[in-house]
Amino acid sequence: MRAVLALARHEARLLGCLAVWALRRGRPSGPSGPSGGGQVFGYARGQGPMMAGLAFVCVVETLTMSVLLRHWPAVHAVMLFLDAYTVVFVIALYASQVVRPHLLTAEAVRIRHSVHVDLRVPPAAIAAVRHEVRTTHPRTDGELDVPVGSRTSVTIELATPVTHVTLFGRRREVRVVRFHVEEAERMVRSLSTLARSAT
């Protein structure tokens, strides 16, 4: 039951992001965050064409299934709903990446990816931060990788571990966090300054 509730909450949050994106609210337009008290760092640039291509493939599949199942109205109705929802899901996934960028404030850096990841790291916990491009991420205990297109560009090493909560509520302690950001060098400079001021 907990898994079902987690998935339902996940879907609702995705659709909420789609609504925000459609209304042109929450989209980062500069160095200030949504409340004006932080910096936003996007990671969705370059994902638009891929998501559009995936949505197009889903639309083609929908049309194809409509032709193949035209003699079975009940099955056709079910498949039409599922295919249409898949298209909405793909668009919502992209929207959630746009309206939920990484956010840097005086209290914490929030490392986010869509609605799947939202890790808060206090500045005092940061031991080192560097611009490091990686395309392979073997799963390792104590490390959290948040790649975009199989790529991460910033690495944070922590003096004290922080707790990452997964989609289904599993908790794990992490001491190294790798994630992708479009302006990696600006992110590293801002994080370094924030970490120094917290010590």
Describe the fold and architecture.
The chain is α+β, with helices and mostly antiparallel strands and 199 residues long. The protein is built from 4 helices and 8 strands; from the N terminus they run H-E-H-H-E-E-E-E-E-E-E-H.
Keywords:
single chain; 199 residues; four-stranded antiparallel β-sheet; four-stranded mixed β-sheet; 4 helices; 8 strands; 43% helix; elongated
Strand content: 25-35%
- Count of helices? 4
List low-pLDDT spans: 26-33
Number of strands: 8
Compute the average pLDDT.
Answer: 87
Task: Supply Rg.
Answer: 19 Å
Spatial order of strands in the largest sheet: 1-2-3-4
Percent in helix: 40-55%
Main sheet? 4 strands, antiparallel
Order of helices and strands: HEHHEEEEEEEH
The secondary structure category is alpha+beta
Overall body shape: elongated
Whole-Å distance between the termini? 43 Å
Provide a concise account of the structure shown:
The chain has about 200 residues and is an alpha+beta fold.
Write the layout of secondary structure elements.
Elements: H1 2-22, E1 39-41, H2 47-68, H3 73-99, E2 102-104, E3 109-113, E4 117-121, E5 126-134, E6 143-146, E7 152-165, E8 171-179, H4 184-198
Parallel strand pairs: 6-8
Antiparallel strand pairs: 1-2, 2-3, 3-4, 5-7, 7-8
Helix pairs in contact: 1-3, 2-3
